[in-house]
Automatic annotation (TrEMBL):
<keyword id="KW-0732">Signal</keyword>
<dbReference type="Pfam" id="PF01453">
    <property type="entry name" value="B_lectin"/>
</dbReference>
<dbReference type="InterPro" id="IPR001480">
    <property type="entry name" value="Bulb-type_lectin_dom"/>
</dbReference>
<dbReference type="InterPro" id="IPR003609">
    <property type="entry name" value="Pan_app"/>
</dbReference>
<dbReference type="Pfam" id="PF08276">
    <property type="entry name" value="PAN_2"/>
</dbReference>
<protein>
    <submittedName>
        <fullName>Uncharacterized protein</fullName>
    </submittedName>
</protein>
<keyword id="KW-0325">Glycoprotein</keyword>
<keyword id="KW-1015">Disulfide bond</keyword>
<feature type="domain" description="Bulb-type lectin">
    <location>
        <begin position="45"/>
        <end position="165"/>
    </location>
</feature>
<dbReference type="InterPro" id="IPR036426">
    <property type="entry name" value="Bulb-type_lectin_dom_sf"/>
</dbReference>
<feature type="domain" description="Apple">
    <location>
        <begin position="309"/>
        <end position="392"/>
    </location>
</feature>
Amino acid sequence: MNIDNLAPILPVNKSILMATKGRIDMLVRLSCLLLLLMGNSYSQRDKLLQGEELKDGDELLSTFGKFKLGFFTPSYSSKRYIGVWYQSGYYGVVWVANRNSPIIGKSGSLKLESTDGNLKIFHSGGNPIAITSFEGARNTSVTLDQSGNLVLHELHSNGSIKGMLWQSFDYPTHTLLPGMKLGINLLNGHQWLLRSWLTIFSPAEGSYTFGMDQNLTDRLIIKRLGEVRWTSGLWPNGEFKSWVDRGYNFSYTSNEQEKYFSYSVKDDVTSFPTLQITDDGSLNDDGGFSMLCSKEGRHCGSITDSAICNRGSSYFDVKFGLMSSGDGTKFMESDDMTLDDCRLKCFKNCSCVAYAATYRENITECEIWSRGTKFIKSHTDDSRTIHLEVQPKGKSLLQ
Ligand SMILES: *[C@@H]1O[C@H](CO)[C@@H](O)[C@H](O)[C@H]1NC(C)=O
Ligand SMILES: *[C@@H]1O[C@H](CO)[C@@H](O)[C@H](O)[C@H]1NC(C)=O
Ligand SMILES: *[C@@H]1O[C@H](CO)[C@@H](O)[C@H](O)[C@H]1NC(C)=O
Ligand SMILES: *[C@@H]1O[C@H](CO)[C@@H](O)[C@H](O)[C@H]1NC(C)=O
Ligand SMILES: *[C@@H]1O[C@H](CO)[C@@H](O)[C@H](O)[C@H]1NC(C)=O
Ligand SMILES: *[C@@H]1O[C@H](CO)[C@@H](O)[C@H](O)[C@H]1NC(C)=O
Protein backbone atom coordinates (compact mmCIF):
# COMPACT_ATOMS: atom_id res chain seq x y z
CA MET A 1 0.00 0.00 0.00
CA ASN A 2 1.22 3.42 -0.88
CA ILE A 3 0.25 5.90 1.73
CA ASP A 4 1.37 9.04 0.01
CA ASN A 5 -0.87 11.28 -2.02
CA LEU A 6 -3.67 11.08 0.47
CA ALA A 7 -4.32 14.78 0.18
CA PRO A 8 -6.46 14.58 -2.95
CA ILE A 9 -8.71 12.06 -1.26
CA LEU A 10 -9.21 14.16 1.83
CA PRO A 11 -12.25 16.36 1.68
CA VAL A 12 -10.74 19.81 1.37
CA ASN A 13 -14.27 20.49 0.15
CA LYS A 14 -15.61 23.45 2.05
CA SER A 15 -19.01 21.95 2.57
CA ILE A 16 -17.51 19.32 4.81
CA LEU A 17 -16.91 20.55 8.29
CA MET A 18 -13.44 19.62 9.36
CA ALA A 19 -14.70 19.70 12.87
CA THR A 20 -11.99 18.04 14.89
CA LYS A 21 -8.66 16.42 14.48
CA GLY A 22 -10.30 13.13 15.32
CA ARG A 23 -12.65 13.63 12.45
CA ILE A 24 -9.88 14.52 10.00
CA ASP A 25 -8.10 11.41 11.10
CA MET A 26 -11.16 9.28 10.70
CA LEU A 27 -11.29 10.49 7.11
CA VAL A 28 -7.61 9.77 6.60
CA ARG A 29 -8.21 6.31 7.96
CA LEU A 30 -11.24 5.72 5.78
CA SER A 31 -9.30 6.90 2.74
CA CYS A 32 -6.61 4.44 3.59
CA LEU A 33 -9.01 1.62 4.01
CA LEU A 34 -10.07 2.28 0.43
CA LEU A 35 -6.45 2.30 -0.66
CA LEU A 36 -5.92 -0.94 1.19
CA LEU A 37 -8.77 -2.60 -0.62
CA MET A 38 -7.35 -1.44 -3.91
CA GLY A 39 -3.85 -2.27 -2.76
CA ASN A 40 -1.38 -4.23 -4.78
CA SER A 41 0.50 -7.24 -3.50
CA TYR A 42 4.06 -7.08 -4.70
CA SER A 43 7.20 -7.67 -2.66
CA GLN A 44 6.06 -9.91 0.16
CA ARG A 45 9.45 -10.31 1.81
CA ASP A 46 9.84 -9.60 5.53
CA LYS A 47 13.62 -9.19 5.64
CA LEU A 48 16.68 -7.63 4.02
CA LEU A 49 19.93 -9.50 3.77
CA GLN A 50 23.30 -7.81 3.84
CA GLY A 51 23.86 -5.71 0.73
CA GLU A 52 20.12 -5.68 -0.11
CA GLU A 53 18.04 -2.55 -0.29
CA LEU A 54 14.41 -1.52 -0.04
CA LYS A 55 13.66 1.19 -2.58
CA ASP A 56 11.04 3.87 -2.12
CA GLY A 57 7.77 2.23 -3.19
CA ASP A 58 8.73 -1.25 -1.98
CA GLU A 59 7.64 -2.63 1.35
CA LEU A 60 8.56 -5.25 3.90
CA LEU A 61 5.54 -7.23 5.07
CA SER A 62 5.60 -8.97 8.44
CA THR A 63 4.66 -12.64 8.71
CA PHE A 64 0.83 -12.86 8.79
CA GLY A 65 0.76 -9.47 7.09
CA LYS A 66 -0.17 -7.29 10.03
CA PHE A 67 2.60 -4.70 9.67
CA LYS A 68 4.36 -3.06 6.78
CA LEU A 69 7.57 -1.11 6.57
CA GLY A 70 8.16 1.38 3.81
CA PHE A 71 8.42 5.02 2.82
CA PHE A 72 5.47 7.31 3.45
CA THR A 73 4.49 10.96 3.26
CA PRO A 74 2.02 12.32 5.80
CA SER A 75 -0.94 14.17 4.33
CA TYR A 76 -0.19 17.81 3.44
CA SER A 77 3.55 17.24 3.68
CA SER A 78 6.24 16.88 1.04
CA LYS A 79 8.65 14.98 3.28
CA ARG A 80 9.36 11.26 3.11
CA TYR A 81 9.82 9.04 6.12
CA ILE A 82 10.50 5.37 6.64
CA GLY A 83 8.03 3.86 9.02
CA VAL A 84 6.17 0.81 10.22
CA TRP A 85 2.39 0.92 9.99
CA TYR A 86 -0.63 -1.29 10.15
CA GLN A 87 -2.69 1.28 8.31
CA SER A 88 -1.82 4.77 7.28
CA GLY A 89 -2.61 8.03 9.03
CA TYR A 90 -1.44 9.38 12.36
CA TYR A 91 -2.78 6.50 14.44
CA GLY A 92 -1.79 3.70 12.08
CA VAL A 93 1.90 4.56 11.81
CA VAL A 94 3.53 2.94 14.83
CA TRP A 95 7.21 3.69 14.28
CA VAL A 96 9.29 6.17 12.27
CA ALA A 97 12.97 5.59 11.54
CA ASN A 98 13.90 9.13 10.51
CA ARG A 99 11.42 11.39 12.29
CA ASN A 100 13.94 14.23 12.59
CA SER A 101 15.73 13.69 9.29
CA PRO A 102 13.12 13.43 6.55
CA ILE A 103 13.99 12.93 2.91
CA ILE A 104 12.78 15.15 0.10
CA GLY A 105 11.71 13.28 -3.02
CA LYS A 106 11.59 9.58 -3.76
CA SER A 107 15.28 8.83 -4.12
CA GLY A 108 15.46 7.08 -0.75
CA SER A 109 16.37 3.47 -0.13
CA LEU A 110 16.84 1.51 3.06
CA LYS A 111 19.98 -0.56 2.83
CA LEU A 112 21.88 -3.07 4.90
CA GLU A 113 25.45 -2.03 4.15
CA SER A 114 27.51 -4.81 2.61
CA THR A 115 30.71 -3.50 4.23
CA ASP A 116 29.73 -3.27 7.91
CA GLY A 117 26.19 -4.64 8.20
CA ASN A 118 24.66 -1.38 9.45
CA LEU A 119 21.18 -0.19 8.51
CA LYS A 120 21.19 3.11 6.61
CA ILE A 121 18.93 5.27 4.51
CA PHE A 122 20.57 6.34 1.25
CA HIS A 123 19.15 9.28 -0.70
CA SER A 124 20.24 11.77 -3.34
CA GLY A 125 19.90 14.80 -1.05
CA GLY A 126 22.97 14.27 1.16
CA ASN A 127 24.86 11.85 3.36
CA PRO A 128 23.30 8.52 4.26
CA ILE A 129 21.20 8.57 7.45
CA ALA A 130 22.47 5.91 9.86
CA ILE A 131 19.79 4.00 11.74
CA THR A 132 22.37 1.76 13.39
CA SER A 133 26.08 2.48 13.74
CA PHE A 134 27.93 -0.53 15.09
CA GLU A 135 31.69 -0.55 14.75
CA GLY A 136 33.49 -3.36 12.99
CA ALA A 137 32.32 -5.53 10.11
CA ARG A 138 29.45 -7.88 10.86
CA ASN A 139 27.22 -10.25 8.96
CA THR A 140 23.64 -9.11 9.53
CA SER A 141 20.05 -9.34 8.38
CA VAL A 142 17.07 -7.19 9.30
CA THR A 143 13.53 -8.54 9.77
CA LEU A 144 10.14 -6.94 10.34
CA ASP A 145 8.72 -9.45 12.79
CA GLN A 146 5.06 -10.21 13.37
CA SER A 147 4.81 -7.92 16.39
CA GLY A 148 5.89 -4.90 14.32
CA ASN A 149 9.44 -4.93 15.65
CA LEU A 150 12.25 -4.27 13.17
CA VAL A 151 15.12 -6.46 14.34
CA LEU A 152 18.76 -6.39 13.23
CA HIS A 153 20.38 -9.79 13.73
CA GLU A 154 24.02 -10.74 13.65
CA LEU A 155 24.63 -13.92 11.67
CA HIS A 156 27.16 -16.71 11.86
CA SER A 157 29.20 -17.20 8.71
CA ASN A 158 26.91 -20.17 7.86
CA GLY A 159 23.91 -17.79 7.86
CA SER A 160 22.26 -18.86 11.12
CA ILE A 161 21.32 -16.22 13.69
CA LYS A 162 24.01 -15.45 16.27
CA GLY A 163 22.10 -12.82 18.23
CA MET A 164 20.18 -9.57 18.21
CA LEU A 165 22.13 -6.34 17.67
CA TRP A 166 19.35 -3.78 17.61
CA GLN A 167 15.55 -3.54 17.59
CA SER A 168 13.14 -0.72 16.82
CA PHE A 169 11.14 -1.60 19.97
CA ASP A 170 14.04 -0.10 21.96
CA TYR A 171 13.62 3.23 20.13
CA PRO A 172 9.89 3.91 20.18
CA THR A 173 8.34 7.00 18.62
CA HIS A 174 4.79 7.84 19.78
CA THR A 175 3.32 4.34 20.01
CA LEU A 176 3.57 1.51 22.51
CA LEU A 177 2.68 -1.87 21.02
CA PRO A 178 2.20 -5.13 22.92
CA GLY A 179 5.65 -6.45 23.79
CA MET A 180 7.31 -3.03 23.96
CA LYS A 181 8.72 -1.67 27.20
CA LEU A 182 8.23 1.73 28.80
CA GLY A 183 10.80 2.35 31.50
CA ILE A 184 14.50 2.18 32.24
CA ASN A 185 17.30 -0.29 31.66
CA LEU A 186 19.28 0.12 34.88
CA LEU A 187 22.39 -1.54 33.45
CA ASN A 188 23.04 0.95 30.67
CA GLY A 189 20.69 3.81 31.55
CA HIS A 190 18.72 3.42 28.33
CA GLN A 191 15.23 4.84 28.62
CA TRP A 192 12.20 3.49 26.77
CA LEU A 193 10.12 6.61 26.26
CA LEU A 194 7.31 7.67 23.93
CA ARG A 195 7.51 11.09 22.33
CA SER A 196 4.58 12.66 20.49
CA TRP A 197 4.51 13.75 16.87
CA LEU A 198 4.78 17.50 16.36
CA THR A 199 1.34 17.62 14.68
CA ILE A 200 -0.85 14.89 13.23
CA PHE A 201 0.79 15.63 9.87
CA SER A 202 4.39 15.70 11.10
CA PRO A 203 6.22 12.85 12.86
CA ALA A 204 8.99 15.24 13.95
CA GLU A 205 9.57 15.19 17.73
CA GLY A 206 6.70 16.95 19.47
CA SER A 207 6.28 18.48 22.91
CA TYR A 208 5.00 15.51 24.93
CA THR A 209 6.74 12.50 26.39
CA PHE A 210 5.22 9.52 28.17
CA GLY A 211 7.36 7.26 30.29
CA MET A 212 9.04 6.65 33.60
CA ASP A 213 11.11 9.17 35.49
CA GLN A 214 14.56 7.99 36.56
CA ASN A 215 13.87 9.07 40.12
CA LEU A 216 10.27 7.96 40.20
CA THR A 217 10.24 4.47 38.80
CA ASP A 218 6.98 3.37 40.34
CA ARG A 219 4.68 5.44 38.14
CA LEU A 220 4.24 6.83 34.64
CA ILE A 221 4.55 10.48 33.75
CA ILE A 222 3.43 12.72 30.89
CA LYS A 223 5.70 15.72 30.40
CA ARG A 224 5.32 18.70 28.12
CA LEU A 225 8.69 20.20 27.15
CA GLY A 226 10.17 18.55 30.23
CA GLU A 227 7.52 19.84 32.62
CA VAL A 228 5.36 17.25 34.41
CA ARG A 229 1.71 17.46 33.29
CA TRP A 230 0.29 14.19 34.56
CA THR A 231 1.43 11.46 36.92
CA SER A 232 -0.12 8.04 37.30
CA GLY A 233 -0.73 6.48 40.68
CA LEU A 234 1.40 3.75 42.19
CA TRP A 235 1.32 0.23 40.80
CA PRO A 236 -1.01 -1.44 40.61
CA ASN A 237 -3.61 1.18 39.94
CA GLY A 238 -6.86 1.86 38.20
CA GLU A 239 -5.63 4.55 35.83
CA PHE A 240 -5.83 2.28 32.84
CA LYS A 241 -9.12 0.72 33.80
CA SER A 242 -10.85 1.56 30.54
CA TRP A 243 -8.11 -0.29 28.65
CA VAL A 244 -8.20 -3.20 31.09
CA ASP A 245 -11.93 -3.46 30.50
CA ARG A 246 -11.21 -3.82 26.80
CA GLY A 247 -8.83 -6.75 27.34
CA TYR A 248 -5.46 -5.02 27.75
CA ASN A 249 -3.32 -6.82 30.32
CA PHE A 250 -0.85 -4.38 31.89
CA SER A 251 2.15 -5.43 33.88
CA TYR A 252 5.00 -3.79 35.75
CA THR A 253 8.38 -5.50 35.98
CA SER A 254 11.06 -4.41 38.42
CA ASN A 255 14.38 -6.15 39.03
CA GLU A 256 18.09 -5.29 39.21
CA GLN A 257 18.38 -4.96 35.44
CA GLU A 258 15.28 -3.08 34.45
CA LYS A 259 12.07 -1.44 35.52
CA TYR A 260 9.33 -1.25 32.94
CA PHE A 261 5.68 -1.11 32.13
CA SER A 262 4.28 -3.21 29.29
CA TYR A 263 1.12 -4.90 28.16
CA SER A 264 -0.27 -7.80 26.25
CA VAL A 265 -3.77 -8.28 24.90
CA LYS A 266 -6.19 -11.12 25.12
CA ASP A 267 -6.89 -13.02 21.93
CA ASP A 268 -10.40 -11.66 21.65
CA VAL A 269 -9.36 -8.00 21.46
CA THR A 270 -10.72 -6.97 18.10
CA SER A 271 -9.49 -3.40 17.90
CA PHE A 272 -5.84 -2.79 17.15
CA PRO A 273 -3.97 -2.71 20.47
CA THR A 274 -1.96 0.49 20.76
CA LEU A 275 -1.21 3.18 23.29
CA GLN A 276 -0.19 6.49 21.76
CA ILE A 277 0.85 9.86 23.13
CA THR A 278 -0.69 12.45 20.82
CA ASP A 279 0.54 15.85 19.73
CA ASP A 280 -1.70 17.47 22.33
CA GLY A 281 -0.70 15.22 25.22
CA SER A 282 -3.55 12.72 25.36
CA LEU A 283 -3.08 8.99 25.63
CA ASN A 284 -5.11 7.41 22.88
CA ASP A 285 -6.04 3.97 21.72
CA ASP A 286 -5.89 2.93 18.08
CA GLY A 287 -9.15 4.63 17.19
CA GLY A 288 -7.81 7.98 18.26
CA PHE A 289 -10.05 7.94 21.28
CA SER A 290 -8.60 9.34 24.42
CA MET A 291 -8.41 6.68 27.09
CA LEU A 292 -6.97 8.92 29.72
CA CYS A 293 -8.17 12.30 30.90
CA SER A 294 -11.37 11.56 29.04
CA LYS A 295 -13.40 13.45 31.62
CA GLU A 296 -11.55 16.63 30.70
CA GLY A 297 -11.79 16.07 26.97
CA ARG A 298 -8.65 15.86 24.94
CA HIS A 299 -6.78 18.33 27.05
CA CYS A 300 -5.05 16.32 29.72
CA GLY A 301 -1.78 18.03 28.82
CA SER A 302 -2.89 21.22 30.46
CA ILE A 303 -5.27 20.39 33.26
CA THR A 304 -2.68 20.41 36.00
CA ASP A 305 -1.51 23.90 35.11
CA SER A 306 -2.33 26.32 37.90
CA ALA A 307 -1.74 29.30 35.61
CA ILE A 308 -4.82 28.45 33.61
CA CYS A 309 -7.43 31.16 33.53
CA ASN A 310 -10.69 30.40 35.33
CA ARG A 311 -13.44 30.66 32.72
CA GLY A 312 -16.32 29.59 34.91
CA SER A 313 -18.65 27.32 33.03
CA SER A 314 -17.56 28.31 29.54
CA TYR A 315 -15.43 25.96 27.48
CA PHE A 316 -13.84 25.71 24.04
CA ASP A 317 -15.78 24.27 21.16
CA VAL A 318 -14.72 23.62 17.59
CA LYS A 319 -16.34 25.79 14.88
CA PHE A 320 -15.69 26.26 11.19
CA GLY A 321 -15.48 29.84 9.94
CA LEU A 322 -13.61 33.12 10.39
CA MET A 323 -12.86 35.69 13.06
CA SER A 324 -14.16 39.19 12.27
CA SER A 325 -10.79 40.84 12.86
CA GLY A 326 -9.02 38.57 10.39
CA ASP A 327 -5.68 37.24 11.57
CA GLY A 328 -5.10 36.86 15.28
CA THR A 329 -1.93 37.27 17.31
CA LYS A 330 0.72 34.96 15.85
CA PHE A 331 3.69 33.70 17.74
CA MET A 332 7.17 33.72 16.33
CA GLU A 333 9.30 32.63 19.26
CA SER A 334 9.91 29.24 17.76
CA ASP A 335 9.58 27.63 14.36
CA ASP A 336 7.37 24.87 15.57
CA MET A 337 4.54 26.62 17.36
CA THR A 338 1.61 24.29 16.92
CA LEU A 339 -2.06 24.34 17.71
CA ASP A 340 -1.23 22.79 21.04
CA ASP A 341 1.08 25.69 21.97
CA CYS A 342 -1.65 28.22 21.14
CA ARG A 343 -4.19 26.20 23.09
CA LEU A 344 -2.03 26.57 26.19
CA LYS A 345 -1.34 30.25 25.47
CA CYS A 346 -5.04 30.84 25.12
CA PHE A 347 -5.93 28.89 28.25
CA LYS A 348 -3.49 31.02 30.23
CA ASN A 349 -4.66 34.36 28.87
CA CYS A 350 -8.08 35.40 30.20
CA SER A 351 -8.65 37.83 27.34
CA CYS A 352 -8.22 35.05 24.79
CA VAL A 353 -11.49 33.85 23.26
CA ALA A 354 -10.30 31.75 20.33
CA TYR A 355 -7.30 29.93 18.90
CA ALA A 356 -6.58 28.17 15.62
CA ALA A 357 -3.87 26.77 13.43
CA THR A 358 -2.78 29.29 10.81
CA TYR A 359 -2.55 26.71 8.03
CA ARG A 360 -5.56 24.48 8.11
CA GLU A 361 -4.02 21.96 5.73
CA ASN A 362 -0.98 20.94 7.75
CA ILE A 363 -2.06 22.38 11.13
CA THR A 364 1.18 24.33 11.52
CA GLU A 365 1.71 27.76 13.05
CA CYS A 366 -0.99 29.15 15.24
CA GLU A 367 -2.68 32.26 16.51
CA ILE A 368 -5.03 33.47 19.23
CA TRP A 369 -7.75 36.14 19.34
CA SER A 370 -8.82 38.41 22.21
CA ARG A 371 -12.20 39.54 23.37
CA GLY A 372 -13.78 42.05 20.96
CA THR A 373 -13.48 40.00 17.82
CA LYS A 374 -16.47 38.00 16.63
CA PHE A 375 -16.78 34.55 15.17
CA ILE A 376 -18.39 34.39 11.72
CA LYS A 377 -19.72 31.06 10.55
CA SER A 378 -18.66 30.65 6.92
CA HIS A 379 -17.37 28.24 4.34
CA THR A 380 -15.23 30.52 2.22
CA ASP A 381 -11.72 29.65 1.03
CA ASP A 382 -10.07 31.22 4.04
CA SER A 383 -12.41 29.63 6.58
CA ARG A 384 -10.88 27.19 9.01
CA THR A 385 -11.32 25.24 12.17
CA ILE A 386 -11.44 27.64 15.11
CA HIS A 387 -11.46 26.68 18.76
CA LEU A 388 -13.90 29.14 20.27
CA GLU A 389 -14.84 29.93 23.84
CA VAL A 390 -18.53 29.16 24.28
CA GLN A 391 -20.94 28.96 27.16
CA PRO A 392 -22.89 25.82 28.04
CA LYS A 393 -25.91 25.06 25.83
CA GLY A 394 -23.75 25.91 22.84
CA LYS A 395 -24.31 29.65 23.22
CA SER A 396 -21.25 31.56 22.09
CA LEU A 397 -20.06 34.47 24.18
CA LEU A 398 -19.41 36.33 20.99
CA GLN A 399 -22.53 35.96 18.94
C1 LIG B 1 30.15 -13.31 6.68
O1 LIG B 1 29.65 -14.39 5.94
C2 LIG B 1 30.52 -14.85 4.91
C3 LIG B 1 29.85 -15.98 4.18
O2 LIG B 1 28.48 -15.80 4.12
C4 LIG B 1 31.84 -15.31 5.52
O3 LIG B 1 32.73 -15.66 4.50
C5 LIG B 1 32.44 -14.20 6.37
O4 LIG B 1 33.56 -14.67 7.06
C6 LIG B 1 31.44 -13.69 7.38
N1 LIG B 1 31.99 -12.55 8.09
C7 LIG B 1 31.90 -12.42 9.42
C8 LIG B 1 32.49 -11.16 10.01
O5 LIG B 1 31.36 -13.27 10.12
C1 LIG C 1 26.29 -22.30 12.14
O1 LIG C 1 27.46 -21.94 12.87
C2 LIG C 1 27.29 -21.85 14.26
C3 LIG C 1 28.58 -21.31 14.91
O2 LIG C 1 29.68 -21.85 14.28
C4 LIG C 1 26.85 -23.18 14.83
O3 LIG C 1 26.64 -23.08 16.24
C5 LIG C 1 25.58 -23.61 14.16
O4 LIG C 1 25.18 -24.91 14.59
C6 LIG C 1 25.72 -23.62 12.64
N1 LIG C 1 24.41 -23.86 12.02
C7 LIG C 1 24.25 -24.67 10.99
C8 LIG C 1 22.85 -24.80 10.49
O5 LIG C 1 25.17 -25.24 10.49
C1 LIG D 1 17.36 12.36 40.38
O1 LIG D 1 17.75 12.69 41.70
C2 LIG D 1 19.10 13.10 41.81
C3 LIG D 1 19.43 13.27 43.29
O2 LIG D 1 18.36 13.87 43.95
C4 LIG D 1 19.29 14.39 40.99
O3 LIG D 1 20.62 14.81 41.08
C5 LIG D 1 18.91 14.12 39.53
O4 LIG D 1 19.00 15.32 38.80
C6 LIG D 1 17.51 13.55 39.44
N1 LIG D 1 17.27 13.15 38.07
C7 LIG D 1 16.16 13.50 37.41
C8 LIG D 1 16.05 13.01 36.02
O5 LIG D 1 15.27 14.17 37.92
C1 LIG E 1 -1.08 -10.98 31.74
O1 LIG E 1 0.32 -10.74 31.68
C2 LIG E 1 1.07 -11.51 32.59
C3 LIG E 1 2.51 -11.04 32.54
O2 LIG E 1 2.97 -10.88 31.24
C4 LIG E 1 0.91 -13.00 32.22
O3 LIG E 1 1.62 -13.79 33.12
C5 LIG E 1 -0.59 -13.36 32.26
O4 LIG E 1 -0.76 -14.68 31.82
C6 LIG E 1 -1.40 -12.43 31.39
N1 LIG E 1 -2.80 -12.69 31.59
C7 LIG E 1 -3.67 -12.82 30.59
C8 LIG E 1 -5.09 -13.05 30.98
O5 LIG E 1 -3.34 -12.74 29.41
C1 LIG F 1 -3.25 38.10 26.03
O1 LIG F 1 -3.50 38.14 24.63
C2 LIG F 1 -3.58 39.47 24.12
C3 LIG F 1 -3.97 39.37 22.66
O2 LIG F 1 -3.24 38.45 21.99
C4 LIG F 1 -2.26 40.18 24.32
O3 LIG F 1 -2.34 41.50 23.84
C5 LIG F 1 -1.90 40.18 25.78
O4 LIG F 1 -0.62 40.73 25.95
C6 LIG F 1 -1.92 38.77 26.34
N1 LIG F 1 -1.70 38.79 27.75
C7 LIG F 1 -0.77 38.07 28.33
C8 LIG F 1 -0.67 38.17 29.81
O5 LIG F 1 -0.01 37.34 27.68
C1 LIG G 1 2.20 24.34 6.00
O1 LIG G 1 1.50 24.91 4.92
C2 LIG G 1 1.86 26.27 4.64
C3 LIG G 1 0.91 26.79 3.57
O2 LIG G 1 0.85 25.94 2.49
C4 LIG G 1 3.33 26.32 4.24
O3 LIG G 1 3.72 27.66 4.01
C5 LIG G 1 4.16 25.74 5.38
O4 LIG G 1 5.52 25.69 5.02
C6 LIG G 1 3.70 24.34 5.73
N1 LIG G 1 4.44 23.88 6.88
C7 LIG G 1 4.93 22.63 6.97
C8 LIG G 1 5.69 22.30 8.21
O5 LIG G 1 4.78 21.81 6.08
